Amino acid sequence: MRSEEIEIRTGGTERVVDLTRRIAEFCRDGQDGLVNVWVPHATAGVAVIETGAGSDDDLLEALRTLLPGDDRWSHRHGSAGHGRDHVLPAIIAPSMSVPVLGGRMALGTWQSVCLVDTNVDNAVRTVRLSFLAG
């Protein structure tokens, strides 16, 4: 097994950040196996989604509908509505594994692996990649 940690700067806005290129570079050794993507944060997750055609914005809008940024949340530190960010990983998991064949992720044509971050209070995220050879 080998691992790598990458840092993602999300800024102070809700974001869907495409990680596919960075993960593909990590997997380029030609081996078959699994790549695990892990976000060690209580307020972010990873998802497979089409990007660039509006789906990433649609996902953020859906999350705003499901998890409104208002004062209904019991968890109340940080900016207004921050409690919703702590519920996000129950909906968008903090990890996933993707099959790798011949050093390439076995994603569908329009699939991208993305960091989903609604927490505007934390502008820097860590993503841990681990490759398990088959």
For the biggest sheet, the summary is:
5 strands, antiparallel
Helix content: 10-25%
* Number of alpha- plus pi-helical segments: 3
Question: Strands of the biggest beta sheet: in what spatial order?
Answer: 1-8-3-5-6
> Can you count the beta strands?
8
| Shape-level CATH architecture | Sandwich
The gross shape turns out to be elongated
Domain unit count: 1
From the N-terminal CA to the C-terminal CA, the straight-line distance is 10 Å
Organism: Pseudonocardia oroxyli
Pfam families: YjbQ
Protein name: Secondary thiamine-phosphate synthase enzyme
Family: Belongs to the UPF0047 family.
Fold and architecture overview:
Pfam families: YjbQ. This is Secondary thiamine-phosphate synthase enzyme. It comes from Pseudonocardia oroxyli. The protein is α+β, with helices and mostly antiparallel strands and 134 residues long. It contains 3 helices and 8 strands, in the order E-E-H-E-E-H-H-E-E-E-E. The chain is elongated, with a radius of gyration of 15 Å.
